[in-house]
Amino acid sequence: GGDHTITYPILQAVAEKHGPVGLVHVDAHTDTGDRALGEKIYHGTPFRRCVDEGLLDCSRVVQIGIRGSSYAPDPYRYCREQGFRVVLAEDCWFKSLVPLMAEVRQQLGAKPVYISFDIDGLDPAYAPGTGTPEIAGLTPSQALEIIRGCKGLNIVGCDLVEVAPMYDVSGNTALLGANLLFEMLCVLPRVKTM
Known about the structure:
Protein name: SPEB protein
Distance between the termini: 28 Å
Strand order of the largest sheet: 3-2-1-4-5
Number of strands: 5
Keywords: Hydrolase, Metal-binding
Strand content: 15-25%
Structural class: alpha/beta
GO molecular function, one term: metal ion binding
Family: Belongs to the arginase family. Agmatinase subfamily.
Number of domains: 1
């Protein structure tokens, strides 16, 4: 629910209980800007604020599907300097993400992990109902591979953000979002699936 700003206070609460957590972040954007429109808290800045406060175990942060417009010649520099693994959308085109998720599970290990999924990580052909669509994104089947690939991780929370139904007269974005949330519930620890 809501825009990506909501992840910041959620991770404050999660870190209060679990300490710094790993993160599987699916998005078109890194959301690590320092300021936007003069504000430090904005839907493009939550993960910068989380780093500032030590809420993330930065060596266990993976961002998948990143692409689109930027304001700097090296838009992913900050993330890489923090130790994040940045997986660009173009590195996901035309392939299964099952092998990537095997690597991600190895990287994240047994410590607590949070999943944050921005619907704009998907191509707007599938999910047009979002405020900052970017072309050439992930497919729904890749989204399922990412989420299902999190099974076995010590997931302590998750969110799905940036669904804006008024931008999608078909209702497909909301349907996709609801199904992805269901999939996230299915990969939570101790959930039995068939």
